[in-house]
Amino acid sequence: MSISHRKADHIQLCIDGDVGFKTKSTLFEEVDFIHNALPELQVQDIDLTTTFAGQTLQAPVFIAAMTGGVDRADTINRDLASVAQELGIGFAFGSQRPLLTHGITAGYSVRDVAPDIPLLGNLGLVQAVSATTVEIERLIEQSGISALCIHLNPAMEVVQPEGDDDFRGGIQCIKRLVDELSVPVIIKETGCGLSSKVAEVIKEVGVQAVDVSGAGGTSWVAVETHRAVDHKKSLGEQFWDWGIPTAASVVQTASFGLDVCATGGIRNGLMIAKAIALGASCGGLARVVLQAYDAGGKDGARAFLERTIQEIRIAMLLTGSQTVGDLQQQPLVLGDRLLKWLPKGASVRQRQFSWR
After folding, report:
1. What is the mean pLDDT of the chain?
2. For the CA atoms of the chain, what is the radius of gyration?
3. Directed axis angle between helix 170-180 and helix 133-143, to 10°?
């Protein structure tokens, strides 16, 4: 099957396929704010500005990585990137493997409609290991990206019919890219989350930012299970719910001082606000944006994202947070299921309160 056909399958499965986690959640339901009935703020006082990977966002939101490498992705990405430009939020490409290995440009040219926003590239670690720095620099130049996400996806790959099964050399490759590329390197997962152990390793080689892409939203193992046959289908069904819940992954990575974007099952602005309070700088939404776009086009996606931003603003008002930095310091009530995922001795900046 061609790589473009595979990317087309991914788009449709993410719009209407049964690709959610079956029993595992993001665990954001285990996070609650302390309501501030006397915030001494007006809504227009709220400053949503934040930074991620050295880039400024007017609101702490990314349209997270979804697609590329197929004609349908060209229209989707250009429309969504232009909405991101209007709102001053970030946009992330889906995997740019088609551009790197096949010269397929569809879906990867949006700078003319989104000249000012943070624009994240996306390449699999396995592909990065076998590519030269010069080849990856060419990809950066062709797509005009602000930073390059290197995605880690071993669970997805071992189920994918065309997937890879050799994951050696990753740490050395990440170090090379951090040292040699002209843009920041962001390490991201693809729906299974990043652990404290991985956070420690990548920080040691110079990585400053991560996109956790945790469990609880779209299961990319599930996506590939729908495409798989025979033993790979049964393998995918067994590992459908594999991964670290998004809320837990945010805490585990933020505890190492990494700049964190929270993705993986994020559906609204309140979830992004909770992620920020757990230590993230911003949050990203993917499937829900794609569904809003599929249902209502560019206007539908814009309306959804405007509502998401307003939800973050209201969460900040109701906690007495004028800035994103203020929100990161708010006291939280954390449930036992989330607390069990925290590394031994870890805390959310020494300010969590657990339910009893």
Report:
1. 91
2. 19
3. 60
pLDDT at position 66 over 90: no
Has residue 3 got a pLDDT over 60?
no
The C-alpha atoms of residue 4 and residue 97 are separated, in whole angstroms, by: 10
pLDDT score recorded for residue 4: 47
The burial class, CB within 10 Å (0-12 / 13-18 / 19+), for 232 is: middle
Contacts of 12 by beta carbon, 8 Å cutoff, 6+ apart: none
- Is pLDDT above 50 for 275? yes
- DSSP letters for 317-328: HHTT-SBHHHHT
Does the predicted TM-score (pTM) go above 0.70? yes
> What is the sign of the dihedral through the CA atoms of 78, 80, 86 and 89?
negative
Count the alpha carbons within 13 Å of 206 in the hemisphere toward its beta carbon.
Answer: 14
Task: Work out whether the CA dihedral 100, 265, 260, 272 comes out positive or negative.
Answer: positive
Are the CB atoms for 30 and 247 separated by under 8 Å? yes
Cα distance between residue 222 and residue 265, in whole Å:
14
Contact present, 104 and 4 (Cβ < 8 Å): yes
User: For residue range 210-221, what is the model confidence (pLDDT) as tens digits?
Assistant: 999 999 998 888
Q: What would the DSSP string read from start to end of 98-153? A: HHHHH---TT---TTT-SSS-EEEEEEHHHHHHS-HHHHHHHHHHHT-SEEEEEE-
Cα–Cα distances (Å) from 345 to 14, 81, 276, 341, 349, in that order, read 38, 41, 21, 11, 11
Reading the block at residue 15, the tokens are 């719009």
Residue type, 199: A
Determine which helix (DSSP H) or strand (DSSP E) holds 74, and give its type and residue range: helix 71-87
> Mapping DSSP to helix (H, G, I), strand (E, B) and coil, where does residue 158 land?
helix
What domains sit in the chain, N to C, each tagged with a CATH number?
Answer: 18-342 (3.20.20.70)
Residues 6+ apart with CB under 8 A from 61: 87, 89, 90, 269, 272, 282, 283, 284, 285, 305, 308, 309, 312
- How far is Cα 259 from Cα 24, in angstroms, rounded to an integer? 25
Distance from C-alpha of 279 to C-alpha of 27, rounded to nearest angstrom: 15
pLDDT at 2: 47
* Token pair for 128: 């990065």
